[in-house]
Each structure stands twice: as structure tokens, then as C-alpha cells.
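INFO  loader      accepted 1 record
INFO  loader      residues=269
INFO  predictor   begin
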Amino acid sequence: MALLEIRDVHKRFGDIEVLKGITLTVAAGQVVCVLGASGSGKTTLLRCINHLETIDRGRILVDGEMVGYRVGRGGKLRAEPDRITAEKRSRIGMVFQRFNLFPHLTAIENICEAPIHVRHLPAAQARSEAVALLQMVGLADKADRYPHQLSGGQQQRVAIARALAMKPKLMLFDEPTSALDPELVGEVLESMRRLAADGMTMVVVTHELTFAREVAERVVMIDGGLVVEDAPPDRFFSAPAHARSRAFLSRLRSIQGAASTGAITSNQE
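INFO  predictor   done
INFO  writer      dumping C-alpha cells
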């Protein structure tokens, strides 16, 4: 049974149709990496899954339920009460490009905030769970540091722990390493690898090809608001079926290769 079902989803911003009929399913425990050029609709799709953006047509179901909607007369979608949407959204964790931590709260306070105020946990229990999550992401010694005292990679790992504190059934990652310096990327990806190994269902928008090849069960290519390819990583990376996938991979490998060469040259200088 699919934990996430996306059926013919359309999304328009003014005159621009960003999603043109996305259909995708993700089984419980699967890791799906989503690739695509800037503007292809990847981030919009993630935001529609947890109802940060509304959809114009189609259906998105998480664990068999729509988030943000109920079906009205004639099968039309109607907005559901905000409190119900908030409860459903709490089952979906999301990690953004930017860390979005509360600057006035310490790492552990950032993690405790939602469990106390949304899950209504006692403060002591929320703190105990937060300590365990910080240990999981390798930051047990940074519990009392404020965001400005942490590196970008450390802030992103706190953001992952904060999302996990809500006990989500599904984790969404929107290019979680794109705002990081290259030397900090590995520590974030390692935390994500641990999540995948523990059986967390994950949809990851990323340009990290090695992570997608090693961790994903499926790689999905989105182009022009449509899924153009959905394949196991071995097949996707060795023999992509669609011309757009081949062009994207070639361009991305060229960019990453040039960046790597530039870093080596810079270090040698």
C-alpha cells in the first residue's frame, strides 16, 4: 500500500502552470529522489504534498487521507478546517533549503517547541526525546548552542531532528544541502542515510547524484511539470530512457566536475 499517492496533480500560479498532471506513488519505507532543472516543479510538488501550497486539480493522499481538503458535492475538493489540516500536516516532516531555526532558541529548544505545543508532550518528555534525536544526528554536545553558534551543516541537522520530533510518517527534503558549503554536505547526507536505513519514508529533492544512486530505491525525473522518468537508480544513472534525463545528468555532471576541479585548483593555490 502506498503511503503517498499523487494523482494527476495540477498547480498554476497565475498564467503559469507549474504542475501539469503529476502522478506518483511512494510505498512505506521507500526513499525516492526527485531530480530536475530549476523551475521544473520539484519544490512546488513538495509544498503541495503538505499543503503549504494548494492544488488546482487532482488528489494527494498521505496514509490514505488528503491534507487540507475534503471531498464535497459532485466530487469537488473543499477546504477542511485549519485544525484538522494542522493535525494531518504534523505527520509530514519537511526540511527546507534554508534551516528556518528559531534564532532565539537553542538547538534543543528548537526541537522541543512543536512536541510541547502541538503534540502536547510534558516538557521533560519532549526534552528527553530531543536529546535522543540530537544524539542520532551527532549533535549531543550542541544542545545548548544557539543557531548562530552552529555551522550550516549543524543547523541543518538540528532542522532534521526538529522535523523528526513530530514523529512523522513521511519526510520531505527540499534540496537540504544546497545552501551548505561543500565540506558540510557530507554530515547532513549521513544523517539522511541513517534515516533511510531505519526505514523512514522519504521524498528527497536533490542534486546530490551519489546520494541518489546509493540511497534511493527510485529516482524520479521531473521536467516541465511532468514526471518524465521513474526508474531504479542503477538504470536511471547508467541508461536513462528519456532525452531530458540524459541532458540533465550530462549538464549536472559537467557542473559538478568543474566545481570539483576548481576546488582542487584553489586548494593547490
